[in-house]
Amino acid sequence: MLIGGGGGLALLGGGWFVFLRDSGVDGPGEAVEAFYSAIDNENIERAEELTHDEGSINVQGQIDNLFFDLSEIQLSVDDTEVLDEDLDLDPGEFDDVQEFDLVEAEVTTAAEGESETETTEFVVALDESGDWLVWEER
User: Fold this and answer.
1) Helices within 1-138 (DSSP H only)
2) How far apart are CA 24 and CA 4, in angstroms?
3) How far apart, in Å, are the Cα atoms of 120 and each of 10, 32, 45, 91, 114?
4) How far apart are CA 103 and CA 53, in angstroms?
5) Band of the pLDDT at 42, cuts 50, 70, 90?
């Protein structure tokens, strides 16, 4: 594992923010790509904006557990695919969720001349304002 912490940065977990926002992404796959792009650019605030308040993603907590300093790694999403799977989440149980989708992402992490590509799945939520936001990793 290049970055560590039980699956590395792919296991990001929960931020709490209450404010109006526009994620600026048009779909669930783009939400995951924008999330990783923000982290790769060390824009933690933007990464947190791309997570849903009620989800389980904690950006800063996971970054604090990395084996490498964030400035020493490069992250990229090579591919995303929205999977046609029945999720065990009911949007009606949450205040600000219209729909959930499951996104499979191929994420490459590079550090110290080595790279590793992992496939991971994220639940992404469409909120009431039409923004796709990362909810949790599966």
Assistant:
1) 28-40, 44-49, 59-63
2) 30
3) 7, 11, 23, 22, 19
4) 19
5) very high
Tokens representing residue 15 in the block: 């931020």
b (16+ CB within 10 A) / e for 96-126: ebeebbbbbbebebebeeeeeeeebbbbbbb
Contact 99, 17 (CB under 8 A): no
Token pair 């949007």: residue: 91
Q: What is the DSSP string of 69-101?
A: -GGGEEEEEEEEEEE----S--GGGSTTEEEEE
In angstroms, what CA-CA distances link 64 with 12, 19, 124?
A: 10, 25, 23
Number of neighbouring beta carbons within 10 Å of residue 65? 14
pTM over 0.90? The answer is no
Residue 45, both tokens: 């605030």
| Residues 125/102, Cβ–Cβ less than 8 Å | no
pLDDT of 3 over the 70 cut: no
